Amino acid sequence: MVALSPDLCPPQRIKGDRSQRARRLGLALAALLAVMTVISLGWGASGTSLTQAILDLLAGRELAVQDRVVLMDIRLPRVLMGIFVGASLAVSGAVMQGLFRNPLADPGIVGISSGASLGAILAIVLASALPGWLTGLFGWYLVPVGAFAGGWATTITLYRIATRRGRTSVATMLLAGIALGAIIGAVSGLVILRADDRELRDVTFWSLGSLAGANWPKLLVAAPIMALAMIHAPWLARGLNALALGEAAAAHVGIRVQKVKNRAILTVAAATGAAVAVSGGIGFVGIVVPHLLRLASGPDHRWLLVNSALLGAVTLLIADMISRTVIAPAELPIGIVTAIMGGPFFLWILLRNRGVLDL
Amino acid sequence: MSLIASDISVSLGRKQVLHGVSVSAQAGEFTAIVGPNGSGKTTLMRSLTGELACRGRITLNGRDIARMPPEELARHRGVLPQAAELSFPFTVAEVVRIGIEGQAGRTEALIPQALAAVGLPGFSGRLYQELSGGEQQRVQLARVLAQVWQPVDKETGPRWLMLDEPVSSLDIAHQLTVMRLAADYARAGGGVIAVMHDLNLTALFAQRLVLMCAGRVLAQGRPEEVLSDDTLSCAYGCRLRVNATPESGIWVLPHLAA
């Protein structure tokens, strides 16, 4: 019998504690993100090589006007947008999966992304029917604002449906999300039927996702929302870890379960709403990134959320580089790139681990 | 210091599951809740842990649990649920760690100690989902134990282990390991309250029994008071015979004679 004495053992490394591995992975990902950011800034369809320009900029030297415009007004906002959107999508996925205790949960699955899409489609198609002063007031903010409003409205509706007497049922929310997603899809279809050719092209391009529209004003609106959501996410880590044991057991170890759920949903709505608003429908990042990280360093949310943000950003930068150059000077929508990269990769992981991994 | 439930009633859906139940358990003792399937044992346990809202009043060390926030309750009592679920591939060490996360003064050095206490030394690096049912149950117990490691808190008094069928999927040797662990916890000044099925194992370790039947307490007290032929036969609806010898204590057998 082992005596229940106070623990007096010296600190030691415990087998099965993967936090050191996760911490190292995080540092490596942060370094990779820094490198990818620089490469990404120098990468593109513009004829001039910008690598020298970046080195000049880092050294504090004056840039040629053309290099300056391409670098500061086109590439930099786009790269920053890629970092924020990639991080937001991956963190939203990880939080949603922790909340639903299901590695396949994703804002895309519970209809939050569809709601945001509907908002954007409405904005594109109905823009011509709106009074001039309104479209003038929002300018090209109309689509992002529509997407953001759609994402929020869906999340709140879903939450109201799934909450009874202050308790949110995760199962109801998942099922209601699937139903709501179908209804929203149908309404989007109806709206698209009304669209003319130009609007149709806009809708299609937007729904495939792209960072092409990134500019400083959009970034300044969306980035603070995404940044706030991501800064807040690590505070959810302890609650999400405990929730893996089920809601009752999480409450027994001292977690205020309803508070964690409320905050997780708010975080996801803000991050996904802002990301979809500025970049359209970019799939798979939210599922594949957290899944890979769980395989590499375990599901502990203290590291998973931070590392998801880093790997999500790296992934989107790579996808954007491919989308910018593969059919240059035209551009491949980034949603197609992430789906082509992510889909087969995800299937490969599933097949490789068939029977070993309990999803 | 004690755990006292006074006149508690619980309805699940339209069905009333507990009818004005009053029970008490003392720190320093192993209290077992026994009774047939569907008699309300688990519902009573879920009320005592604060998980289920109920009519009536439950106090832990003199404080109303309905007024204690979750983190405060977590300092005073650890709960082993009947069915332990776990999503995502956590290692054993990571599962036990969830028990100490957020608890002041606990370090990760406790993880191997808690695992050794439940008879799983060297298991910390294994994946939880690859363990057998009995091993998983003991990992969960290690997690609960790590949460309320010292049986007595210098400031707030005794801590409590609340166990819902802690030995249901264990072999006889590990049943003894777990029961001894619980008994030692009580001997060191902590409180233990457990839902049990095996009357013989219960009689070996418990100082106090609560016998439930149809949502009511049929009898409670010392094992020799509660375990009688008539009371048990009435509770379980079959003929049971209670035997006792000075060497082996009390044991219960079904009476199969025509």
UniProtKB/TrEMBL annotation, chain A:
The keyword Transmembrane applies. It comes from the Bacteria. One of its GO terms (biological process) is siderophore-iron import into cell. InterPro entries: ABC_BtuC-like, ABC_transptr_permease_BtuC. One of its GO terms (cellular component) is plasma membrane. GO terms for molecular function: transmembrane transporter activity. Keywords: Cell membrane, Membrane, Transmembrane, Transmembrane helix, Transport. It is a multi-pass membrane protein. Pfam families: FecCD. The chain crosses the membrane at residues 25-45, 79-100, 112-134, 140-162, 174-195, 215-237, 264-289, 301-319, 331-351. It is found in: Cell membrane. PANTHER family: ABC TRANSPORTER PERMEASE PROTEIN MJ0876-RELATED, FERRIC ENTEROBACTIN TRANSPORT SYSTEM PERMEASE PROTEIN. Belongs to the binding-protein-dependent transport system permease family. FecCD subfamily. This is Heme ABC transporter permease. It comes from Paracoccus kondratievae.
TrEMBL record, chain B:
PANTHER family: HEMIN IMPORT ATP-BINDING PROTEIN HMUV. PROSITE patterns: ABC_TRANSPORTER_1 (PS00211), ABC_TRANSPORTER_2 (PS50893). It comes from the Bacteria. This is Hemin import ATP-binding protein HmuV. Part of the ABC transporter complex HmuTUV involved in hemin import. Responsible for energy coupling to the transport system. Residues 3-239 form the ABC transporter domain. One of its GO terms (molecular function) is ATP hydrolysis activity. Keywords: ATP-binding, Nucleotide-binding, Translocase, Transport. NCBIfam families: PRK13548.1. It comes from Paracoccus kondratievae. CDD domains: ABC_Iron-Siderophores_B12_Hemin. InterPro entries: AAA+_ATPase, ABC_transporter-like_ATP-bd, ABC_transporter-like_CS, P-loop_NTPase.
